Amino acid sequence: MSAASAGLTHEVVSIDERGRPSTLHIPAERPLTVYVDKRELVTLMTLGGAPEALTLGYLRNQRLVRALDDIVSVQVDWSVDAVAVVTRNGIADVEARTAKKVVTTGCGQGSVFGGLMDEVETITLPPDARLAQSVVYRIVDTIRTQQSVYKQAGSVHGCALFSNSGELLYFVEDVGRHNAVDAIAGLMWLDGVAGADKVFYTTGRLTSEMVIKGAQMGIPFLLSRSGTTQMGHMVAGKVGMSLLARCSGTHFLLLAGAERLVFEPGLLEPLNAPRRVPVA
Amino acid sequence: MSAASAGLTHEVVSIDERGRPSTLHIPAERPLTVYVDKRELVTLMTLGGAPEALTLGYLRNQRLVRALDDIVSVQVDWSVDAVAVVTRNGIADVEARTAKKVVTTGCGQGSVFGGLMDEVETITLPPDARLAQSVVYRIVDTIRTQQSVYKQAGSVHGCALFSNSGELLYFVEDVGRHNAVDAIAGLMWLDGVAGADKVFYTTGRLTSEMVIKGAQMGIPFLLSRSGTTQMGHMVAGKVGMSLLARCSGTHFLLLAGAERLVFEPGLLEPLNAPRRVPVA
Question: Considering only residues 192 to 251 of chain B, which have any Cβ-Cβ distance to chain A shorter than 8 Å?
Answer without folding.
Answer: 204-205, 207-209, 226-233, 245, 250-251
